[in-house]
Amino acid sequence: MPTPTDIGTLIIQTPNIRGGRPHVAGTGVTVRRIIGWYKLGLSPEEIASELPHLSLAQILLISDPLAFAHSYWLSNPRSLRLAIRY
Asked: Quick one: CA torsion of 73, 78, 81, 84, rounded to 10 degrees?
């Protein structure tokens, strides 16, 4: 049986990695990069083939903005509130 993962640990921000932009934990792959490819029309499977060190589950989480935003907010409500302030 798969081990449950705290979604708040999948996407992190580290000041000295990618300028502090949100990225996939343990990698330098930013959320922006994955969303950018998704907006260009790449499917989650195509993105996963370009980034074989990421799982399809990680790509799906990020490429579905509603699922990502909801899941990330549940784990990081303060961080998301700060990110959407203008």
From this structure: -80
Residue 2 covered by a domain: no
Q: Is residue 79 part of a domain?
A: yes
pLDDT tens readout for residues 28-44: 898 888 888 988 999 88
pTM greater than 0.90 (yes/no): no
Domain residues for 53? 10-84
Q: Would you state the structure tokens that stand for residue 1, as one six-digit string?
A: 């049986």
Which DSSP state fits 4?
A: P
DSSP 16-30: TSGGG--EETTS--B
